[in-house]
From TrEMBL:
One of its GO terms (biological process) is translation. Keywords: Metal-binding, Ribonucleoprotein, Ribosomal protein, RNA-binding, rRNA-binding, Zinc, Zinc-finger. The keyword Ribonucleoprotein applies. InterPro entries: Ribosomal_eL37 (IPR001569), Ribosomal_eL37/eL43 (IPR011331), Ribosomal_zn-bd (IPR011332). PANTHER family: 60S RIBOSOMAL PROTEIN L37, RIBOSOMAL PROTEIN L37. Residues 1-25, 89-110 are annotated as: Disordered. Gene3D superfamilies: 2.20.25.30. One of its GO terms (molecular function) is rRNA binding. This is 60s ribosomal l37. Pfam families: Ribosomal_L37e (PF01907). Belongs to the eukaryotic ribosomal protein eL37 family.
Length: 110
C-alpha cells in the first residue's frame, strides 16, 4: 500500500475544486468600483445587484436607499462637472470670437 499524503497536501489539492466563492463571482460593473461584492451568480449568470448582463441597471422603487447610493453624482461625474460650465456659455466651440475676428481683419488689411 502506498504511503498517504500529509493532510496539508490533501487540503491544498481539494481547494480548487471547492471554489470558495459560493457559486458567485464579481461582475464587470463592479470592477471599477473596487468593491468586494460577489453578487453575480455563476449558474444563472445574472447579477443580483445590478442585473448584469442586462443592458440597463437593475433598480426598483421599493428600494429608495439603494437608488440613492448609486444615482448620478455619487461618483466622480467627470463629464457632468464640465457640462454645467459649458451650458452657461451656450456650448461654444472653437477659438474665441475676438481671435477669429482679429485674424480676418488682419488678412484684409494686408
Amino acid at each position: 500500500m502506498p504511503p498517504r499524503n500529509p493532510p496539508s497536501l490533501e487540503i491544498r489539492s481539494r481547494r480548487p475544486l471547492m471554489g470558495g466563492m459560493g457559486g458567485k463571482i464579481q461582475p464587470l460593473r463592479f470592477g471599477e468600483m473596487g468593491s468586494r461584492r460577489r453578487s453575480l451568480h455563476v449558474q444563472k449568470h445574472e447579477c443580483a445587484s445590478c442585473g448584469y448582463p442586462a443592458a440597463k441597471m437593475r433598480k426598483y422603487n421599493w428600494s429608495e436607499k439603494a437608488k440613492r447610493r448609486r444615482t448620478v453624482g455619487t461618483g466622480r461625474t467627470r463629464y457632468l462637472k464640465d457640462v454645467s460650465r459649458r451650458f452657461k456659455n451656450g456650448f461654444q466651440t472653437g477659438a474665441p470670437k475676438n481671435a477669429r475676428v482679429g485674424k480676418k481683419t488682419a488678412e484684409q488689411e494686408s
